[in-house]
User: What shape does this take?
Amino acid sequence: MIPKMFLCLTILLINICLFNNVSGQNEAIRLPKSLRPYKYFLTIRPDIYSPSTGFPFSGSVIIDFDVTSTTNQIVLNQLRINVRNFFLVLAPENTIPGANVPGWANPIQNDVQQTVVVNLNGTLTEGAKYRMLLIFNGEMEVASNNGMYVDYYDIGEVRRYLVASQFQIDHARKAFPCFDEPEFKAVFKVTVERKRTRHALGNGELERTRDLGDGWFADEFAETPHMSSYLVALVVSDFEKVETRSPNGKLVRLWAQPEKAKYLNFSAGAAGRIQDWFEEYTGIEYQTSKMDHVAVPSRGGAMENWGLIQYGENELLYDPENSVMANKVRVALVLAHEIAHQWFGNMVTCKWWDDTWLNEGFAAFFQWQPLEAVLNWDIGLVQKVRDEFSIIKQDETSLSLPVQRPDIQKPSQAQSGFSGFTYRKGGAMLRMLEQMLGKATFQKSLKKYLADFAYKSAITDNLWNSFQTVVEEDGVTLPNGEVFPVKEIMDSWVLQRGIPILNVTRSGNVLKFDQQRYLQPDLPVPSYTWNIPITLANDASGAGNLTTVHMVRTKEDEYTSPSSLGSWFALNSLSTGYYRIKYGSEDETALINKLKSDVNAVDRIYRAQLLDDAFSFTSNKYRKEVEALSFTTFLKQENTAGTWVSAINGLSRLYERFTDFDSAEIGKYTRSIVDTMFNQFTFEPKPNEDDFTAFSREIVSSAACSFGNSDCINKANELVNIYREQKENRIAPNQRYTAYCTSLSSGDKIRENFFFFEEQQKKTNELNYNEINDLVAAQACVSDQTQVNMLDEYLDRIIKSEDLYYSDLERVTRLVALSASTRGRNRTLERIDELWVEDFPRGNRATVLLAVARNCHTPFTIQKVRDQMTRRPAEGGDEIVYEEIENALKANEEWTNENFSEIDDWFRDNVQANVDEKEIFSFSLFEKNFKKSMKFLDLNEHF
Ligand SMILES: [Zn+2]
Assistant: This one.
């Protein structure tokens, strides 16, 4: 599953759990293990045909089950459904003669414990097979993305209702009574009842339809594989489909509301081929006769239900005319993630949510791999930047969690098993293991794991055991010749939280290592040690060496290279190891100098890692700020936009601080680097270029226009002029925001462009949400440089509300956006008193002031904010925000005193002489554009 904003939810749920756990019985319980279901016959009738009277459902479920230990009680899960009848008989498969069929009392429902309990007046016979029948009804929620729920879309004035489902983590129990924990796997034979105006989809293919009379039909679906209850799914809708066959001949259908079905084409072209990729990689054929992918209007994220994957529309639909490349990447990643689950998660399932990473870590690992093969995307660097650098940043904080979570035992804790640490760090752990064992042994081990646990559930030690068997067959050893101990090596990574920093010093051919946990400043450092694989790149080895030459297994350790290390070396050379490295200063200088003369001496992924490490060390106070900058000196030779992203991540923190000073040195320095990249990419797309060139161009051109590259600025203005005059938008979706924003911060048509964008924004229909976002966001780039004083006019429209031009929320959002630019911020600060008027949303004044304060660094602007706080003391609940403002100002003062002049001098010394000083630098354009183009990096959090 890719959940929607799970991180916040997780934090929230932990709080709720702590609060609710006062009494052990006062929450959902785990089921006893004495009964094991093996087959369900579920018939369900969701009624969406009289919306004015609600959305009831009714159904019946027959559950055939084994008795593994004798009991006089049947306990199932249910939540907020009404179980009306219960019957018990022996199952047709029972082979125990004389098995006892006791009588039963009325079912007792408990919505706190989320159970239905049937007390028996005798015991069930151990080893016998029984069949129970329950008849039930309930009410569906609307657009809840939870249980079996009602969703809708509108065609003009007409609202069309549909039924969708989301049963993970534990919502199947809201649709029918069941054994709703992942280890209780069974076969499900599902029948869905619907009226003529809709069709139904289930996990299996439709086998037959019966006419029930009264306008109702029963659609009977093929039996599912042996699977967990959270994978059961259904959709009842009038959606339209695109039907394809994978190259291996499997039926693949994609569904969306009729007006949006045309946006299914990209997914339709990729889904079948990705599915076939997994068949080939695992050597296991896809398990059911069809695969449906459905875009459900109100949901976000996606859910891997076996044979019936449900997505948010943004996760499955792609509009080539108006969507940026980042959307395309996201759609492809989500497709691959959910398809990966059919093997990893659906076929082999974590036994309980303490091992969620066995589902999600694998899906996160495999969401990238097929894209290289199927879409020909060279995506390894994007993966590194998007998935790993972002999770490492969280792993350095006190919010870090382990990948494997033995602490999760109660149902109320299960949600916290779905965190970035199970997904992205879990994926990183598998990538590191693949490097240590080699691709062939890794793949063979996975095949064994799938074969050992197909249609069963597994725990982490099961995975390590399958691997260990293959490792021994293949004779994989540690560098010292010892058999590779899979569990021992990996436990240090998946059971401990955090990431290590490895300090490396060299004397001759001996490398000395010292490891400790890498943490943000002021956090206590625990005495963890990890098993850290060392790979080595130098002149002798080449850039892409993946051989583990040494394993650091103690806090301090050393390695003697059998041959000369040469004049420079780099460790973790393809960045497959999950750790940061701090080299001794001479070795660091030698490495940077090597890259300045030959940037390809190490792989580009490692170059990105070097920059990420360098800026992380300065932000966590492991080094002085200025020391990271020497790593950017090789960027003049850099040829990969993705490596740039790493540098920009770090430099953007400095830009934010420098915008408040009148120092242009940082801008000039960056210009001298970015020009080389821009000349390679140019502004406009070239015919037939690949997707990633287009994606890189977005990053490079936003930097080039922001830092005053005149070719870039002229081209942007020219394209916007054509758009305005001819009403024909020839700007590629990836370049639109850059072009709009540039045309509002430079050029001679700022005023015309501003109002043209506003007019367009109102006309754009709802399908082009990317276009609307671009237009609205670009308006914050407006500059007051020109005679028309457009910035003040824009501020008038936001602050003064005579015409109620913008909603309250928009007024605040637009002011916050303006505060990112020097001119916007200064002008807002000059006019800040105007916010203290009756009709300006009171609670949001402090929010605007905070946004401004965060970017104030000079004594002058800092004093202005403080004056405002004195003049307008905190009112009604704003005290906390005021405290935050004062903290931000103090931190900025401190940073400036410690770092500003040193860094400014560094830039002055390193700027190339030939940069034109007249050019403008639009930090706000750069900042916002960069963040926007990187939006898809937040995939897990945003879904
Ligand atoms: Zn998933």
About this structure: The pocket of zinc ion is lined by residues 1-2, 304, 337, 341, 360, 363 (CB under 6 Å). Confidence is low (pLDDT under 50) at residues 3-24, 915-943.
